[in-house]
Structure prediction request, 250 residues.
Amino acid sequence: MTRIAVNGAAGRMGQTVIETAADRDDLEVVVGFDVEAGEVDGVPVVAEDVAGALAEHGVDVVVDFSIPESTLPLAEACVEAGVGLVVGTTGFSDDGLADLDVVSESVPLLKATNFSRGIQVLQRTVREAVRALDDYDLELMESHHNGKVDAPSGTAKTLLEVVQEERDVEPVYGREGHAPREGDEIGVFARRAGDIRGEHELILAGNDEVLSLSHHAEDRAVFAAGALDAAAWLSGREAGRYEFGAVVDA
Ligand code: NAD
Prediction:
């Protein structure tokens, strides 16, 4: 039984992780962390001394869905307590990402911008499509709920990285003023409305056809389930940086 802590426990994802874990018998959420102490679905939420709480509750892995400013001190507490870390938070600066790399020298760390299995498959499909249709125009769109703090989404950035590994395209964000396409570019668009869980679409357009590759998350539970699978998989592993693709393929 993997003992899990959730950082950002009172947030949209944190609450969903706690609810989703309640239906599983391979793991248990034993404590949560957030800016205010309290309780979520019977799980105690504490607001200070994270390293102490990790030791006190015998935590194996922390699942983090918060903000980058919270993830980095949390990661230091994980190093202090010798506890693995699953990071779902997005929006890190390059320095923040480098700090997480340092953390992974001491504890097992798995970070993914998207914990849905469908997005993992989409990444592979995007790679194949961009490789095969190497002269088609590319445009990337994403839509999320109106409370999302980063744009474009971490998933859109990951999809952009996949595209750029295959083709030397320059991202153009928002494409203001109906500018015509210039050179080999990819438009990147972010929409924020209502409670949209997460939509991503890449179109590849030739002169006589359009290939559209898209994914819709219908419930946050899909991300929670993937993050919990990652936590169970990560428990007991050696220090190092791991990818969600390995969990999906396991
Ligand atoms: P949210 O705003 O609903 O929740 C964030 C929570 O973090 C809040 O409860 C907030 O109080 C808490 N928090 C802030 N500072 C903290 C601190 N210092 N210590 C502890 N807790 C702190 O946001 P959300 O919709 O749950 O999303 C959280 C993150 O997860 C975002 O970066 C989002 O992009 C990302 N996300 C990732 C995936 C994925 O599959 N990887 C899926 C959905 C969301």
